[in-house]
Structures are given as C-alpha cells and as structure tokens.
Amino acid sequence: MACEVNGNSDARIGEALIKEVIEEELKDVPSEDVPPLTPLAATVESEQERKLVTQLAKMVCIIGDLVQGDQELRDVIDGVARSSGSKWDNFQKVADKVFEHGITWERIAVLFYVAGKLAVKMVEAHLPETVREILMWTVEFFKKNLLGWIRDHGGWINSFSELAKSSVQSVSTMSAHSYGLVLIFVAGLAIGSIITWRLSRN
C-alpha cells in the first residue's frame, strides 16, 4: 500500500512539475496570450509535495539553461514549431531525440525544459491553444515512458542527487556570474533533503 501511495505521489509530482516548468518558461509572455493550464495536470496534495515540485522546477531550469546553447536541440524545437505535420508526431520525435541514449534524470529534466520552450514558441507563432496540447502530450509521454523508470529508481526524491551532480558539473565550466545559480541549487538540495527526511518519517 505504501508503495502505491508513493507511486501515486510520483505521478502527481511529475504532472505538477511539467505544468510548473511550462508556466515558468511562459512567465515573460503576456498573460492574455497564454491559456490556463490548471485543470490539465494533477495538483499536489501536500505542502511537502509542493515544495518538492518547486525545488525540482528550479533544478530543471538550471539544467535547461545549461543545454540552451545546444544548437541541435534548438533546431529540433524550432522544427516542431514550424512543421506543418502532426504536432504530436513531431513532439514524439523530440522526445525520442532527448532519450535516444536512454533515460536519465538529466534527460527527463531536459524534456520538461524543452516542453516549456516549445510552449513559448507556439505562443510566439500565435498558436496559444497548442500550449495546452504540449502540456497534455508531455504528461502522456511522462506517464507512458518515464513514470515506471522514475519509480524503479526510487521516485522523485532520488532525483535530487543526480540532478545536483549534473548541474554542478556543468556549472563548473560556466562564468562567475553563474555561481548564484549554484547557491540557489544547493539551497534547493538542502530543502529537498529536509523534505526527503519528513516524507520518510510518514
């Protein structure tokens, strides 16, 4: 029963995280251009889950900012936004590209980041209704292809150390101004550890 509860929590956290990342990417877009996303993804059920989603979203943004310079990834995002074919098929191609070398925590973060960037591109292309579709496609892909892997690897709680490792390794090659991100990240890691401790006591 406890495993089922944790599994349901992982599903909720994943859906809420996707929504949070997309909304974070859209924050600089005029709000009248963005459709509401609230009823489309599960919402967290506790303060601990909400804090976990917030910290994970910060990590996803850090990792996303680090891969932002990847021209191949940008070309794939632009290709989906401009393509006249099935948007779902094109999204699937992006997801396949992200996971072509297997699933890792970092690649899951990249997919969520890509979904947010794709949402921005669609609003810029005057296709705001597609933002809701991107959220639904990402949630569907997450449930079908990633949730089982996440559960097998200890749930979202266990993502902190791996995401921390990949973020810190990447940040070590960045400019001095980026060290503020590291501080935010480390603070998030500390909060994540507290959340992990509290969740393990329940």
TrEMBL record:
Domain (Bcl-2 Bcl-2 homology region 1-3) ranges: 60-156
Instruction: State the protein's name.
Output: Bcl-2 Bcl-2 homology region 1-3 domain-containing protein
SMART domains xref list? BCL
Q: Which Pfam families match?
A: Bcl-2 (PF00452)
Record bears the keyword Chloroplast: no
- Looking at the record's lineage, which domain of life comes first? Eukaryota
Q: Which GO terms describe its molecular function?
A: BH domain binding; channel activity
TM ranges:
179-199
InterPro entries from the UniProt entry: Bcl-2-like_sf, Bcl-2_BH1-3, Bcl-2_fam, Bcl2-like
Q: Which GO terms describe its biological process?
A: extrinsic apoptotic signaling pathway in absence of ligand; intrinsic apoptotic signaling pathway in response to DNA damage; mitochondrial fusion; regulation of apoptotic process; release of cytochrome c from mitochondria
> Which keywords does this chain's UniProt record carry?
Apoptosis, Membrane, Transmembrane, Transmembrane helix
What family name appears in the similarity comment? Belongs to the Bcl-2 family.
Name the GO cellular-component terms: mitochondrial outer membrane
